[in-house]
Amino acid sequence: MTKALVTGGAGFIGTHICDSLLSDGVAVVCFDNLGSGQRGNVNRFEDDDAYTFVEGDVREPLGQQLNELDTNFDYIYHFASRASPADFKDHALEISQTNTIGTKHVLELAREMDATVVYASTSEVYGDPKEHPQEESYRGNVSIRGPRAPYDEAKRFGETLCTMYTRQFGVDTRTVRIFNTYGPRMRSDDGRVVPTFCVQALQGDDLTVYGEGDQTRSFLFVDDLVRGVRTFAEHDELAGEVINIGHTDETTINEFANTVTRLSPNSIETVYQPLPEDDPTRRRPDITKAKSLLDWEPTIDLETGLKKTLEYFGTEVVNAHP
Ligand code: NAD
Ligand code: UDP
């Protein structure tokens, strides 16, 4: 039986990765400190014998924390890390250590077990990009001292560690640069634009657009992401590669607010609030590499994905705790 470790498996993307692996008959160990993860994302698998939850922290060596399991992993999906800009100040040290020291601990375990590592990097490594759309070869425009540095600089070094472990020790690592991904099981209060607008819309509150709302993002529905990540992990010849996974439809935050308003059950307004410092002005992936190496492209448009996400927040969050 194939065995996988999913760090950050109690978080939004991690829980969908666990789901997908379990459906394919893979035994899954979810490893998470429940910092930004949700207990409900663990409890949903409690009846599945192929699923084990270990509460732990990647900032400490993993071997000791996983000792009792006495198991070897074929794959490690390293998805642990808070990802919301709202956390970049108060959890700065934790985030930077999770992606640097934490990534080193994951790579050491993989080296010991001869496992394949898939590292969740981010479009943030491109910073406020001067090249558009962003290809994997673009080196980025990141502010090393800026408010997003605990996240984007740490992800950049996390990527460097992966390439070092591949070159120096022959560890099979693959890096996926994820562009804004959304869907059910996001935390309703994590501060990112999708859960924030969904909950505002469902409660009949004003949508809070930061700045003028003309900054852009490319929103990918989580099912498309998981398909891309799994395909990348399982293509033997792609060890050491880095691939962008994201949607190619680029949307301004005003357009995004208009779509949410249209789909909202309530009549709502938009209010404008100050733009956070260093908020990237635009972002869209070049997915030529994903298309050619993985035969992957997004299949779910924003409106379809948003309807599913609104439905989730409606039943699981807003109506569950009115
Ligand atoms: P999330 O906050 O929902 O999930 C992160 C999970 O990691 C949480 O369950 C949290 O408790 C856990 N975690 C954090 N630090 C940990 C630590 N030190 N030890 C153990 N567990 C820890 O965020 P998400 O959106 O699901 O993001 C998952 C991964 O994907 C992250 O690495 C993130 O940087 C990356 N990513 C996400 C997006 C996106 O749009 N959602 C975009 C780019 C990259
Ligand atoms: N944003 C917004 N209102 C909010 C939350 C975010 O207008 O309530 C904006 C934010 O300034 C950014 C975009 O939406 O330009 C995406 O923000 P998010 O935090 O989701 O992710 P980012 O891509 O910035 O990491």
TrEMBL record:
Subcellular compartments:
Golgi apparatus membrane; Golgi apparatus, Golgi stack membrane
Q: Which domain of life is it from?
A: Archaea
Q: Where is this region: Disordered?
A: 126-145
Keywords annotated in UniProt: Decarboxylase, Glycoprotein, Golgi apparatus, Lyase, Membrane, NAD, Signal-anchor, Transmembrane, Transmembrane helix
Descriptive protein name: NAD-dependent epimerase/dehydratase family protein
**Gene3D superfamilies linked:** NAD(P)-binding Rossmann-like Domain
User: Which intervals carry biased composition (Basic and acidic residues)?
Assistant: 127-138
What's a Pfam family this protein contains? Epimerase
> How the protein sits in the membrane?
Single-pass type II membrane protein
Q: Supply the source organism for this entry.
A: Haloferax namakaokahaiae
Say yes or no: keyword Cell membrane present.
Answer: no
Q: What range(s) does the NAD-dependent epimerase/dehydratase domain occupy?
A: 4-246
Q: Give cofactor(s), names only.
A: NAD(+)
Q: Which SUPFAM superfamilies match?
A: NAD(P)-binding Rossmann-fold domains
| Signal sequence annotation | none
InterPro entries hit by this protein: Epimerase_deHydtase, NAD(P)-bd_dom_sf, UXS-like
Recorded GO terms, molecular function? Answer: carboxy-lyase activity
